[in-house]
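User: ok so my PI wants both of these folded by tonight, can you help

Assistant: No problem, let's get them done. Here's the first:
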Amino acid sequence: MMSSNEKLKTDHPSFLTMDPTMVTIFVGPEKKPHTVHMDLLTHYSDYFRAMFKGSFKEAEERKTSMEDVQDSLFGYFLDWLYHQTLPCPLSDCTLHPRPTRTINPGTKLSRAKKLDLVTRLYALGDQYEIPNLRRDAIDHIFYYYDRLEVVPDYRSVILAYDNLPEDSPLCQLLIDRYCRNGYRASVHDYGEDKELNKDGKLRSDLPYAFLLGMMIKGLGTIAHLVEGNERKTGDVCDYHEHADDEERKKCKEEREARTMPTRIKTIETATEVQAPTVNVPTPTPTRTQPSIRRWISKIPRF
């Protein structure tokens, strides 16, 4: 769960009422200057709110630095800050529950690289206490794996664990996807991008915390299946850091309301498209419970 001081913002500041005061942030090793509306930045980030509206020298000088953040990543953060958009790893972003908040112009990148970007943005939201950014990023990552029914490649796992605490909801999501969808070394030793995965050699770089977490989760899943229960389905709210059950219930209701057919407008094409309302695939009938031996065979061997 997010800290008691962190709260999701349900509104977005209006330029009609926003204070025009700007702050300067020097980004990356080159310290490239970026000017940002202080009210917008402090609205979403507890970190910057304390910095620019507290008794620190930054509040007086109205400037700070983020040398550990790449300039290009900061640009995507500004896109989110001002427009509430993120790069969408899905090829068909209408599959996302919030299609109007997923398209980002200028992101002509591979699916794997978009996923890396969103992971880095999640880590940025964790480091600078921006719960709304974390929420949007984890939604993108969850629905990417959920819609395509794939598991993370090694690069994605290493990237997340290198930039986040081991108990991060995103790290738990990666463990859960492996334990739910199974493992095939022929695929996951390479992933989508063989060049980036260096012929499967990244397996030896997988974090110990990830391997241990997957083992514990996997054993629990096996016990669950042995008892004759059906495999649990994923719920994005498991990774939302909700304060209590009431907030979780409200989030689920809002999410279900958003998935109703609606007209959407993509920023990238600037053309309106009708969200699909027909030809919805018929849900696959529940299959007979697979044998436990088949399920165990999917557990990774290192």
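One down. Here's the second:
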Amino acid sequence: MKRVTIALVAGVLALPLAAGPAEAHDHGPRAHDDHLRTRAGRTLTADVLGNDRGTAVVRHTAAAHGSVDIAADGTLRYTPEPGFTGRDSFTYTVSDAVKLYPTHLPPLATIGGVRITGGAYGSALTPVPGRKDEFYGLTDRGPNVGAPDGGKIEPLPQFTPAIGKFRLRDGKAVLEQVIPLRAADGTPYNGQVSPLADTGEKIVDLNGNVLPESANGYDSEGLVAPKDGTFWVSDEYGPFITHFGRDGRAIERLSPFDGSLPAELKYRVPNKGMEGLALTPDGRTLVGAMQSALQQPDLTKKPGNVTTLRIVTVDLRTRATHEYLYLLDDPATTSTAVSEITALSATRFLVDERDGKPEPGADKKLFEIDLTGATDVGPQAAGYDAGKGGVLVGGKSIDAYVGKDTTADATKDLAAAGITPVRKKLFLDVGALVTGLDPSGGFFGHDKVEGVATTDGGRTVVLSNDNDNDFGVDGITNAAPPYALHPKTLPDGRQDDGEYLAVDTTKLPAATSTATVTIDVR
């Protein structure tokens, strides 16, 4: 039986007058029709999901005579057109396979009327040890957009990359703690280019002033949280993997420049370094994933179109490293790269392979991979030459050897050279899921999904969108300083901000149910 509720908000009565049809079965989502009433010229608020069987509102239609906004948690705001009285209606659709948790954090700043949003803790996502509903999120180096000369503009040069602790509850991601990343002496990290690993970028502020290199420059991208309360964070500049204490102070760093990481990783494409980081369930091994192929000295082809990328393991007891090949799905045509890796076991992982396009119809997939049987192409491998890009095949680096091969051809050519990449199979087509739930792209339709976490071996997967370098901005509106920022918006017109999506994989393919809301305006 549908529960009848009365809500009085700002003097407006929201009263369900009639219940929808009785439930016909006891499984799957089920939305019920609602009949509400309000006064002319007043905004009505109500909860349309509370008496449905579903975990999220995934889409809704427009009303003929008023504006409609329904959050994923079912919170409805309806405002009738000025002067309208009578009956209005719209539909909404629910699913029980997903649940959305927006961050709703205040902006970092408002510059020229444009908000720099504060919810960009999506570069990585990892569970708080021992907790089912708590996660650590990670920012990257901070807000930045492209400059007219091909460099970068940082509107907040003093931004400090940080870890945020979130509790996912009641349809909200609640920020409970912020842990800024700092050097061992307590100096805050920043987003400037590191002199230890020059990317060739020129970074300026909004007034066009060049920002100098910084020894504390760090572009944080991957995050894991061991049970001892510390953190390991990978970045794109080195790439480095840095160990931080529970207070955010650096303890030690792994680097391709001192032999603690394979030396060829220094050939990473700028801003395409160690994008993902995992920790095996036993806590013994770090597993890092590069974003794309390396920019090898003998590779003239665009590295982003090359299918090979490296997965590196580090034994935290012995510091021994191993290296394996992961093959992207034809990046020359899909424009995909890797953004995250998450451990399921000591050898099995989820890998987030995605493009940079918003929904609908984008290419965002999670693959399950297994390192078992893959060829180690790391420093212990035969034919390894760090100065020439790692393992050589016919005198060429692996990336140059594969070159413009399709994924299928690369697999064959590598096999002929005695190299077996990691095995991969599709685990979850994220793009197909969210576009199927809302074909307009309005439900979790972000251009980048960069965080993937699970607390139950993959039964439930939590995803984070990443404003990446954007923080709700995606460019400038003028060609000369002082620069004016342009807001980054989603298909439904909202400014992009951080949110987390939980997917119950046992309920896929996702079923939906649609109901009608009728509103009498008097």
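The helical segments are 331-334, 398-402, 407-416, 430-437. The domain at 7-98+511-521 is CATH 2.60.40.10 (Immunoglobulin-like). Good luck tonight!
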